[in-house]
Amino acid sequence: MSRIARIVPAILTDDPQALQKMVRQAETFAEFVQVDIMDGRFVPSHSITCNDVAAAGPKLHLEAHLMVRQPEEQAVCFARAGAEKIVFHFEATSSPLRTIRLIRHLGVKVGLAINPETPLAVTLPLVDRVDSVLFLTVHPGFYGATFLPEVLDKVVELRSRKPKLEIGVDGGIKKGNVAEVARLGVDYICVGSAIFAQPDLAESFHRLQSLAEKA
Question: CA-CA distance, 70 to 82, in Å (whole number)?
Fold first, then answer.
C-alpha cells in the first residue's frame, strides 16, 4: 500500500511566549502540529505546560507528545486543552494498558511512543490497542539530537506486521534523511529544528514535505 508521509511540525520550548509565536507561525503553513511536553524527570529537560498550550489556543489539529512520567496524570488537562491525540511513552508508566484505557475514556486518540533502546517485541501486545505508534529516532528531550538510524529497522518490522497501523517517526529528521524515512512507509514524520530553527519556516516545511512526497 502506497503512503505519502505527512510532515508534522514539532514544537519544543520552555517559554510560553515562544510557544505562542511558534503556534502562530505554524498556523500559516501547516494543518497539524505536535507539541512536546517534558517534565524534567522522564527526560532531563523541562518544557511548557498543558496550561500554556491551552492559553496559546492553537487553531491547528494538535497532538500532545508527553515525555513525562505518569502520563495519565496529565491526560485530562491535554484533552481539555484540545489535543486530538495524546501520545505517551511506553517506558514512562508502570501500566501502559491502564494509560491507554484512561486516554480512550477521555474521547481522544491514543499514541504509543517508543524510545530507541526499547525492543519492539515488548510493545507488540499493545499496538492493536492504540491509534498510532511513534518511534523516537533520537534520545528524547532535546532539539537537534543525533539521529539514530538503527531504529528504522524496527519501523520496517512493525510495518510488515501491521500494514494498516499509523506509524510515525520523531527525531533528528532533516533534508538529508527525510526521504529515507518516508520510503519506509511511515504515515507521518515529526520535525523540530529543521523547521523552527531555520530562517524561513514555511519554506523549510514545504521543502521537507516535497522530499517526503517524492521518496
Answer: 20
Q: Where would I find the H helices in 43-200?
A: 50-56, 72-80, 96-105, 120-127, 152-161, 178-182, 193-196
Check 36, 52, 131, 187 and give the catalytic one: 36
When pLDDT is averaged across residues 70-76 and rounded to a whole number, the result is: 95
> Which of the following is catalytic: 39, 52, 131, 170?
170
The most distant pair of C-alpha atoms in the chain lies apart, rounded to whole Å, by 43
Query: Cα separation of 173 and 80, whole Å?
Result: 30
Question: Is residue 36 annotated as part of the catalytic site, yes or no?
Answer: yes
Q: How far apart are CA 160 and CA 138, in angstroms?
A: 22
Percent of the chain with pLDDT over 70: 98
Q: How many CB atoms lie within 10 A of CB 141?
A: 20
Tell me the three cell numbers of residue 59.
487553531
Query: Catalytic annotation on 128?
Result: no
Q: What values do phi and psi take at 182, rounded to 5?
A: -60, -35
pTM here?
Answer: 0.96
Listed in sequence order, the residues at least 6 apart from 207 whose beta carbon sits closer than 8 Å to its beta carbon are: 175
**Neighbouring C-beta atoms of residue 42, cutoff 10 Å:** 22
Handedness of CA 136, 138, 141, 144 (dihedral sign): negative
